[in-house]
Amino acid sequence: PLVDEHSFVFAFGQASCVQYRLVIRDVNTLQILQLYTCLDQIQYIEWSSDSLFILCAMYKRGIVQVWSLEQPDWHCKIDEGSAGLVASCWSPDGRHILNTTEFHLRITVWSLCTKSVSYIKYPKACQQGIAFTKDGRYMALAERRDCKDFISLFVCSDWQLLRHFDTETQDLFGIEWAPNGCVLAVWDTCLEYKILLYSLDGRLLSTYRAYEWSLGIKSIAWSPSSQFLAIGSYDEKVRILNHVTWKKITEFEHPATITNPKTIVYKEVEKSPSVDAERLSFPPRALASSLFSTQSKYDISQVPVSLQYVKPIADRANPKIGIGMLAFSTDNCFLATRNDNIPNAVWIWDIQKLKLFVVLEQLCAIQSFQWDPRQPRLAICTGNSKVYLWSPAGCVSVQVPMEGDFQILSLCWHSSGDSVALLSKENFCVCYLEREEVK
Amino acid sequence: MGDWKTVTVPVLSSDSKNIFQYTSEKKMSPPSLNTQVLRLPLPSSKSMHTFFSAFCTEENIEQSISYLNRELTTLGFPSIYAESKGKELNLISVINCMNELLVLQHKNLRAQEEVEMQHLKLGSDMDHLQNCYAKLKEQLELSKREIVGLQERDRQLQSKNRSLHQLLKNEKDEVQKLQNIISSRATQYNHDMKRKEREYNKLKERLHQLVMNKKDKKIAMDVLNYVGRADGKRGAWRTDKTEARNEEEMYKALLNDYEQRQKQLLMENAELKKVLQQMKKEIISLLPPQKQKPKERSEDGPVLSDLEEDTGELNKENMWELSCETVREQLTNSIRKQWRMLKNHVEKLDNQVSRVHSGALNDKDVISREDHELETEKLELEIQQCKEMIKTQQQLLQQQLMSPCDDDTTLLLQDCYLLEERERLQEEWRLFREQKKNFEKERRNFTEAAIRLGLERKAFEEDRGAWLKQQFLSMTTDYKHSENMTTASAFLGSSDQDNRLMNSTSQQRKPHCTLSIPIPAEPCQTSQCISHNSSDAASKKPAGDKKPNQWEESDKEETE
Prior knowledge:
Chain A is mainly beta. Chain A is built from one helix and 38 strands. In chain A, the strands form ten sheets. In chain A, strands 26-25-31-30-29-28 form a six-stranded mixed sheet, with no helix packed on it. Chain A has a four-stranded antiparallel sheet with strand order 4-5-6-7, with no helix packed on it. Chain A has a four-stranded antiparallel sheet with strand order 8-9-10-11, with no helix packed on it.
């Protein structure tokens, strides 16, 4: 394999890893600040919460190396040995590292302050088994003993077990804290549509089941104010629960034909490339790249619009059907969703009116999207060399000026909302956004 | 039906037959005449002759007379004999009897006609009724057939319905069965999964033991130096106190969250209550008061007083403090009632409006159209009048411009005058433009001059001051002589300047040369030109005003 995946966390600097090397750059100038070499191919990197340390996890060797930004010659290496390593993450205080060993045998909590090591047995082998509250005070851990699911709540400051309770799930699939840190959402495997809401002190607040037998929950998202919980399911619908009664207040459907005339549908169309005679000059490389990467722009399609629908293969597991991506905007006004049957479209819902607001139809399948942490602005990438930005004022398609192929597979906003990193398989680039002056 | 028609015909034919029968039967049986006489219509003249000659011949006069007498007496007529026995006929009674018989005949004929008419009528009625009857019978047949058809269809549909119900039930049963199958399979899978999981857990445990047993020295952390905690504090041991503290903190966090939410909800509640109160007030104000009261009285008398009390109470006290059930219910119920009343009221108004609208629609249209037409007529008249006025005025104007045909000279003169006028105007325009340019130039000069003068004046004042100082200093010797000199020159200079200024700036005024001091030639000339120009400029009026201009010019010349 040529290169590894890149992972980013924007804080002051910006770290990227290429095989063995960890490169730290300044966000504004992309100047290399530090360069570290690890022992093996890095699979995962994460900044600590105070941005002083970075951990680099190498799952194959079972090693985690931690580097310091302040003291470049400080080093730390955690070796799991024959226990193996499957996942690694920081604790919210930035001084403990939680390593999940192979086969999810146990979670080891290594402390960078003391020599103490803690073990947590029977962690659950699921996608989202560990969840920290936003303020970093509590950690929820999913466990499974004797074929039953449990949740343990720990206080992160001293790792004291606060609560331990069982959940009425068949096979817990994920847990997520509400942004206010008082409610924990626990949902079941996709074979059962069931989501449970627990309070911080372990009481079951409510259970919600939309239907039986069909494939259930695919993804969930809390609204930033903790007012709403959006549940995307395999039946191509998003159901929104409210935090007062934990009952469904509305359902968002994702049909392949949009008929409501109040919905704005932006369709990406290719601008026919205008090849001037002057441009036909050596070196032909430049021309080739401009030929391959055609400009595109958005056109407003007239409703009714029928979107490209991909019929999923019926007898395969984990079908590409249903709402796979869900994200609330940071101002709580919009919800962006993707229906995996209609992979080229992003649906943006107005939460204040609980109605479909905008549909963006792209030429290629949506790879990922992310909201700007400061304003209602959505950045989308579809695997080509363009990044698409949408805001209530309109949408724009931005071509990354790069030679050759640059297929953007994921993106990541800076916490200030001024720049967004665009990642392809081997390269990345940072897109800086000008801030509008507010008079 | 056709039978009836054919029946009527033979009657006539039988009648005609009867007539001939009479003639043949007459000779044989006179008494049978009675019956047949009644059925006979107006006898034809031909039959009459034969009939009359058949009854009485010369031989049986006596017999026939006596027979007639017998018949008449039996019919109730007086005897036609003069006396009871004898052979003399009482002519008068005979005539009377004849007359009576004629009258009787007429009556009988009329009666017969009537009867026949009625007979015909009845016949046609009968026809009509039979037609109706036939039609109704047909209709009845049809409807019977229809009913049968419909019943058949109904039966079919019912059977279809039943079959569909049955299908539905079957489907439901199948669905239920499938669901049961699914659930049983699910439980089976779960059971199997659990079994496999237990096995897996056992393997994990084993593996864990092996891993731990190996005492891998490799499982370690190698760190250069331990880092301090993020918050700078020292790590603490976990004790009961810390546990309690953690619990406390957790509950505090939860309580904070609940309190915040409650605050938000309270605020929302208060706002909504305010809105409801406002709505209630507005609804009450909207409703017509008369309608409200009787309704209130009839429906729920005490409620009104309660409502008033409520409004009074709730307006006085703090609404957001009253959040108990009863008050809440009262408020919502009262608003609901008011709203219903308002709705009814509005519906009534709507109905009224629609009725009025539909009823008086045409009238309104007609009236408005009439009005509209009247107005348009008026406006058209006005337009016509205006047009005429314009035409007449144009004509008058043209007439004025064009002089009458007999005065050619005046016409020519006027033409010439016009040309002259135009030329003069052009000349004057040119002059005016020149003047303007000159004025601009002069204005510039004057401003420069004014500036210069100002500067010079300043300098002069300074000089004067210096001079005066000098004078003061050397007072005794040169006092009077030098003073006179300087003041004179000063005055001269200043008067010169003043004059110049006056002449240059004031164009319209007639320069009153009251000063005896010789005026420098230049400004005078320019002023003359200026005045000349100004007079020309002023003479834009028509020729009639030439005189005052000339007068002005001459005046100027005089003064110069």
